[in-house]
Amino acid sequence: MTQLPTRRGLLFGTAAVSAGALLAGCTSNEPKEKEQAADPQPAADDKPGKPVTIGFAGPQADHGWLAAINSNAKSRAERYEEVTLEITEGSNDTATQIGQIETLINKKVDVLVILPADGKALTQVGLKAMRAGIPVVNLDRIFNTPQAYRCWIGGDNYGMGLNAGHYIGERLKDKQNARVIELAGLDNLELTKQRTQGFDDALKNYPNIRKVARQAAEFTVESGQAKMAQLLQAQSNFDALWNHDDDQGVGALRAIEQAGRDDFLMVGGAGALSAFQAIKQDDGVLKATVLYPPTMAASAIDLARALGQGKGVGGLAEFEIPASLTLYSAVVDKANVDQYMSTGFE
């Protein structure tokens, strides 16, 4: 029998890989039947192992996606009788979040899962945990150096834009002089720039399509409605809209309805339940949304549990978990929406 790596070996012995799907788990054991309805993703190895205390620190849940991150982490941890989850009260204040993480370090938790309010600002506390022998699973917003985490798991912002662009492109490829517009998120965020770049790169494959307008919103319902109203007033004729975020998309759809417009198709982003329901109903402009799955928090708990118990990931030959996992931004439309409905966040 091969000897499992030591805890320090798990911290610093990395095997880099990028995964195009959600982490399925650490072994192939079946999930508990009574819990399957509450969590659509398969659980990691349900056979109880070594007790593990996982500290979880994230930003304030002031957005539907962030609230879903918290709920996914909690529900996943509840699957495992040997897992204790120490969860902090989320904060967007970096000093407060650093203090919360330092408290978890002082409690000597076995593993930390951190979704930083600001990856750059929290890099030092990630380093502090790693140097204290506590492996860190860095969730989504990345620290400045890989030395501050054992594993990173997150979404693909560039891939969101790329897949949205290809979806729109395929539907407009036979239309001459097609025109598209973009309702982006906060322009001061790198993720917004990545989503726009992916979208623009996809459209380069369709010479008949031209992006004629772009407006930045703020990932809120109110900003989505206001900025969409401005776009509709400025652009009397276009064929498709790419909206970066389903929360701000609620406001955008209000503005579209108020303007009485139904002459274009809309693609959203993230995977809100309201978007899935509208896509399934299929009586409006919203035809698809591109995922940025909050189920990544459940996968982060699986990774943390595996680290705490010295396990690898089922389906891979290595003894260690990967150094990074990039989740795929699947396109959800009427053809597959039922498959994803249970993962939608409110």
Automatic annotation (TrEMBL):
It is found in: Cell envelope. Residues 1-24 form the signal peptide. GO terms for molecular function: carbohydrate binding. Residues 28-51 are annotated as: Disordered. It comes from the Bacteria. One of its GO terms (cellular component) is cell envelope. Residues 54-311 form the Periplasmic binding protein domain. InterPro entries: Peripla_BP_I, SBP_2_dom, TAT_signal. Keywords: Signal. PANTHER family: D-ALLOSE-BINDING PERIPLASMIC PROTEIN-RELATED. Belongs to the bacterial solute-binding protein 2 family. This is Sugar ABC transporter substrate-binding protein. It comes from Streptomyces cadmiisoli.
